[in-house]
Amino acid sequence: MLELRGLTKLYGDFSAVKDLNLTIQENEFFCLLGPSGCGKTTTLRMIAGFEKPDEGNIFLNGSDLKDVPAHKRNINTVFQSYALFPHLNVFENIAFGLRMSHVPEKEIQDRVENMLKTVALDGFAQRLPGKLSGGQQQRVTLARALVNEPKILLLDEPLAALDEKLRLQMQVELANLQRKVGITFIFITHNQEEALTMADRIAVMENGNIIQIGLPDDIYLKPKSRFVASFIGQMNFMKLDTLETSDEGVQITLPDGHVIRLDQSVPLANPDELRFGIRPEQLRMSRTAPLPSENGLKGHILNEVYYGDSSIFVVQLENESTVSVMHQNYLPSGNNPESFIEGEDIFVCWSTRAGCLLPE
Amino acid sequence: MFAGVRERDASSRSDLLKIRESQALLFPPYFFLVVFFVLPVLIILSLSFSHNRDFSLGLTLENYIRILDPLYFKVLLRSILYAVIATLTALLIGFPMAYFISFVSPKWKMIFMFLILVPFWTNFLVRIFAWLTILGRQGLLNSFLIWTGIITEPLHLLHSGSAVVVGLVYGELPFMILPIIAALDRMDISLLEAATDLGASRFHVFRRIVVPLSIPGIIAGAIFVFIPALGSFVVPDILGGRDSFMIGNTIKNQFMTVRDWSFGSALSMVLMVAVLIGVSAYLKQGKEQSLGMGEYL
Known about the structure:
The structure holds 2 protein chains of 2 kinds. Chain A is of the alpha+beta class.
């Protein structure tokens, strides 16, 4: 179990990490997600021991890591730039950590060879890193860290340098590998998709602190702030005029006078400080009036962005604001879905149970 | 339609012209090499096979046979020994300096690099003369040692082999430091962090990562120091004595004093071939050990 308590790191006047508290369980695949400059790399470097926190402590299984130098921590890192030793071959790169801890030669042979099999690189032992492809280098870096059987593996945007296809493949492989080796993974990324596909839990960071922490679907479906909502996936936002609680939930009056329902219990707050948020896939377009269980707003289609499996339609509402609506282009039943064309006047409809109220 | 064809024709013609132009750009360097390198070497080569500048007596090997005379052969061996010692000493002093400089902040790095280059603003001869005042009987070093009480009688430092080596190291040190800095600068800092992360202490990071990765720089620096040191004649002239003159002095004497240009040329050729063989063997060995050395030479 890794605990970060009140962790703070200053660079001059700028605080890269501010009073950060976090507990990561054993064998967890934990993801720190945030835009560049949010302090996620600094946090990782403090855990690794490359940076000293200005305040706060890091505990690994209850013992303080304050006076443990980086080379004595039972934590290994996978670097974004891979940082493979260019003068050593694949075998020696992977064996480096074992040699440093004076593991007997026979055992080094066995462990490195096992590791090479695990990352599907057997036969590459004698190659120099410069002669490997990006994906292969990536796997050597992983093997080099994992062969030491660390308590925690830190991964600093390891997939950022790979091309799209390889990245998707590595996401699956990484998640499988983590389950297989049973080591705590702390993964940092600015890519929401990577976080959602791989992590057991996600912490979203902004300005040196964690603003939301939870399971991937929690973060996606119940974002706590506008920042989280728009960082993970896409979300449409609407301004509020008034807010009234009713038996089932709330009634919201939009600035143009339209009333929409949200059948959720929400904490009362000043409507000026709130926004109604709804994701494009929660909206549908219709030529007929909305169902009784739905909200509906009139609008006309400005344009369509075609993605193959689906399209995003940009719809201008009567109050001049625009929303993005996702539309499936193919139905599993084989029937053709209703098709819409640019310029058409339609209703944008959504279930009264969908959507959320977020602080501005 | 025809206009289009004509246009394409014209453009391919201008492409050809461009290629010819770019080939023309290569002319000055070739010209320079031929006039200032190939021709002089050919002249020296032909001189070395002549009876002291007189080709009418035909070709001869007498100049080369003369070099085997122990008198000259000893000087050649001594020169190689001095150059090797100077190179190793320059490496021992230069590597820590380069290591230090490559890890200070960019601002300080500029200052240190500048300081390394400042001595070049003064004439080399003058700077070597300055060493007379340091190493002399009543020089700075002796005065200091007597003042501290380590010695009571001044040491005999000047006009010796060690004074020559000191002068050579002093003169060539920047050529050792600069390529090593270049090699260390190219090294990715995250490699050092990765090694630390994998459990390497500072010593092991240095020994297993920093040193192997700076080998290209060390090889380049060693060559830059060794070659001028081997042919040096100014330093042994001023700081050396009767028993510490080098092959450079002998060659200079053949040309300037004895006026035996043929023998001087033969000595030069032997020196050149020796350097060529030595350096290519060294480079070959270096290539087996490390990568991408060409970028430093």
